[in-house]
Every structure is written in structure tokens, then in C-alpha cells.
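Researcher: Here's a chain I'd like modeled. Treat it as a single chain, no partners, no ligands.
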Amino acid sequence: MITLGDARRVITAAEAKAREIGQPMNIAVVDAGGNLVSHVRMDGAWIGSIDISINKAFTARAFDLETAQLAENSQPGQQFFGIHASNHGRIMIFAGGIPLRRDGSIVGAIGVSGGSGDQDQTVATAGAALFSN
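Model: Modeled as a single isolated chain. C-alpha cells:
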């Protein structure tokens, strides 16, 4: 189970990394069922990235893998080509979604959006790393 306190700590760590790299972000954390636990839109973060961050977290939990990995496998000719159209369009195939693990089990996920794919991944990784400690 991921609590609101857990989600807030993950978001705080991710926000710190976003400030460090100078890129405001939308940061979402979902529970094991893919349900939103908490979301933050940092000052100046794109409004259009709110849903993307939430859906990246959902996607990472729905498939129990990083969205960057899903992106690699969803290109034309790859095994998951077209997956982005499933689940009523909620599937995000951009970097920035990472499952959250506790004691070897996936209990939720973080989704980050607002910068480049590398920036989103860096910020999501910072949040996920704090959770697993």
C-alpha cells in the first residue's frame, strides 16, 4: 500500500530534483490500483502536462514497467505498436513513468511531465529512488 504520506515524500524528492535542473514539473503518484493518490503542479509547469503526468503514473503501474521502456517497444514494427490507443487513450509512451517498489512488490507508480523526456525521467527517478529507500 502507498499512503498519502508516502506519495508526498516521493513528490517532495521529485520536486527537489526538478528545481535543481531548473524545470517546473507536474508530478503524480498512483497506488497499486493505478488510482491517483497525490499530484502537484509546480509553479510555471505546463497545464497540458497535468493529465500526462497522471497517465504516465497509471501506465507505469498498469504495465509494471517504466514508460521509457514501453516507448521503446511501441514503435512501428515493435511488439507493442499501437498500445497508446488502448485504455481509452490513457497509455503514455513517453519517459517519466516509473513503478514504485516496496519489498520487491510494485505498490504504485510516479509520473512526471513538463520537460524533455530525459528531464522527466531524471525527476521521476529521483522520486522513485526516495521511495525505495
